[in-house]
Amino acid sequence: xxxxxxxxxxxxxxxxxxxxxxxxxxxxxxxxxxxxxxxxxxxxxxxxxxxxxxxxxxxxxxxxxxxxxxxxxxxxxxxxxxxxxxxxxxxxxxxxxxxxxxxxxxxxxxxxxxxxxxxxxxxxxxxxxxxxxxxxxxxxxxxxxxxxxxxxxxxxxxxxxxxxxxxxxxxxxxxxxxxxxxxxxxxxxxxxxxxxxxxxxxxxxxxxxxxxxxxxxxxxxxxxxxxxxxxxxxxxx
Length: 237
Fold this sequence. Notes:
By secondary structure, this protein is α/β, with parallel strands linked by helices. It has two domains: 3-24 and 100-227, Rossmann fold (3-Layer(aba) Sandwich), CATH 3.40.50; 26-94, DNA polymerase, domain 1, CATH 1.10.150. The chain is 44% helix and 12% strand. It has helices at 3-9, 26-39, 47-53, 58-67, 77-94, 105-114, 127-137, 160-169, 183-192, 221-227, and strands at residues 13-16, 23-24, 100-101, 119-122, 145-147, 176-180, 195-199, 216-218. The strands form two sheets. The protein has a six-stranded parallel sheet with strand order 5-4-1-6-7-8, sandwiched between helices. It has a two-stranded antiparallel ribbon with strand order 2-3. Helix 2 crosses helix 5, helix 4 (58-67) crosses helix 5 (77-94) and helix 6 runs parallel beside helix 10 (221-227). The longest helix is centred in the middle third of the chain and has 18 residues, at 77-94. The protein is elongated and about 55 Å long. The protein starts with a helix and ends in a 10-residue tail after the last helix. The model has no long low-confidence stretch (mean pLDDT 92). Its EC number is 3.1.3.18. GO terms for molecular function: metal ion binding; phosphoglycolate phosphatase activity.
């Protein structure tokens, strides 16, 4: 058995990213970003551009939109503050309107819940947007904890949000598996000392998830559920 197989076999809980992993939110974010840009008299961004900008939280998304710079550096603080206020106003109105749960997500979550795995959402999206989105998509009942980008001092790729989720679920980091669509997620999992699984769909900030050092890659959460022990307290032999 390889080290990655041992990690999967010993999984007792899961932390799961939101945007690009559980739910496709790019159309909501695209509409909110372009409403912000229009209010500031700036040109629109394409859906593909917004997809590359997703992953490191609201502030970085706004900065990237304002500058078309993947590093997220805004031209000046005043422009950023104006953009952030406009974005929050528009996204509050739009959040969840065009969002779609990815194929295999509900089936996978249901199977994992039935098998007894505690699960938490770990996202860089603020909690005030995360909770309504989970309710609107019908995913809220599957999760024991929800950690947003404003729940801990540092967002992913720092380990803080995953550690916080495991504390809230009262589970061991060593036996937790984090699932996400980007290097942001994989790096956070590695820093936290838990396993990491990448999904091959999603946004990945424009970089291939295949380049990351994952313990496994899956095409859906249903596929992941089938890879793990049938009961959370048992291991594959």
